[in-house]
Amino acid sequence: MADVQTPQVSKGLEGIYIDESSICKVDGQAGKLYYRGYPIEAVCKNASYEEVAFLLLNGRLPNKAELDDITKTMAKERDLPDGVIQIIKEMNGKAHPMDTLRSAFSALSAYDKEVTDQSSEANMRKAIRIISKVSSIVAAIGRLQKGQPYIKPDTTLDHVTNFLYMLNGRKPTQLEYNIVKDMFILHAEHSSNASTFGTLVAASTMADMYAAVTAGIATLKGPLHGGADEAALKMMGQIGNPNNTEQYIEDALAGKQKIMGFGHRVYKTYDPRARIVRDYLLQIKDSSSPEVRTYTEIALRAEKLMIDKLGASKGIWPNIDFFAGPIYLAAGVPADLFTPIFAASRSVGWTAHVLEYWQNNRIFRPLEIYTGKVDLQYVPIDKRA
Ligand code: CMC
User: Fold this and answer.
1) In the CATH scheme, what architecture does the domain 43-223+337-360 have?
2) Which of 36, 142, 264, 375 is 20 to 30 A off residue 230, Cα-Cα?
């Protein structure tokens, strides 16, 4: 409990523990990430997104029957109500896909008969339903904003293949699949980050799971968090020519600007997720697309300069979102869908944390130090200056 005599402020809640959790460990000094104890590299190499969902939600790897079961359930839950597709159509072209996602996702609660059932069984069912449908919403947004008709989900496909099928109207190539599958897994969970905390704050009031995840989507949008991937690619676009990279970065740093895709509250070394994404960057650097080749060269030159200048001295290293843009482009995903896909993926982490937190719920209610005046005399409006 805070000492009321000498209250201390921790801006951004830095260094504050909000609870115990067994979902995910981020070791920011060693640059390691574990999902339920499993190193992220092993998870990415071996698991499907469905398996990661089971692992994070249930705390252990599934056996074959359990994996089949969650895979089938996620496939069965993919369809979107017509009303939700209408919302996407209405907002299409007027709002950023993250805003459309937030509204369309929030509307889903109207179609879930279990929305107010707070039993743990119903909450687990809702978690899986939510994880399944967020991806369908994101794919539908991407599809409709290309001016192409909505494609209904295909229940015979795995989660990631179906997502790319609903987005592009065709099955992905192996490289496209690998990139998007790994991004789905790498973004699935990351302990008490801003959007998970936002989700938990809403959940702690015993608002329903849709309300909580809507808060998570809203919190993810900003460029300091999930929006960094799109912002980093935008910066690469402003740099334009790889030969401008160093000067651009030097000028930005001299002007006290942050370079999107670098730095992290917890990692003070290379983000292990960024290493996996960077391996894909090396795979696509000779891509047939001149745009992807340019972005790749800019990204690698910017990385070198930033590490030389700020890596050891300030603990500012590339995070997952720096290299995401070029590899997503190589996989046929447009820039304004990067953060919505992050949300689709993170829906696993958000719901896993809600399920865990509700086992021993307490409302979040921190304090602030009041610095204003007290006991002012109320002045009638006609006497005010
Ligand atoms: N470029 C240049 N300088 C930076 C950067 C950056 N990307 N990040 C931090 N710094 C500097 C900052 O200017 C400050 O310097 P000084 O001490 O001289 O004032 C110092 O490092 C500490 O920065 P901070 O903003 O107080 O650090 P924080 O822990 O509050 O913020 C962060 C963490 C991720 C918001 C921040 O590093 C940042 O804004 N990075 C860019 C946005 C970004 O890439 N976000 C994605 C994070 S990873 C995915 C996710 O979880 O969302």
Assistant:
1) Orthogonal Bundle (1.10)
2) 36
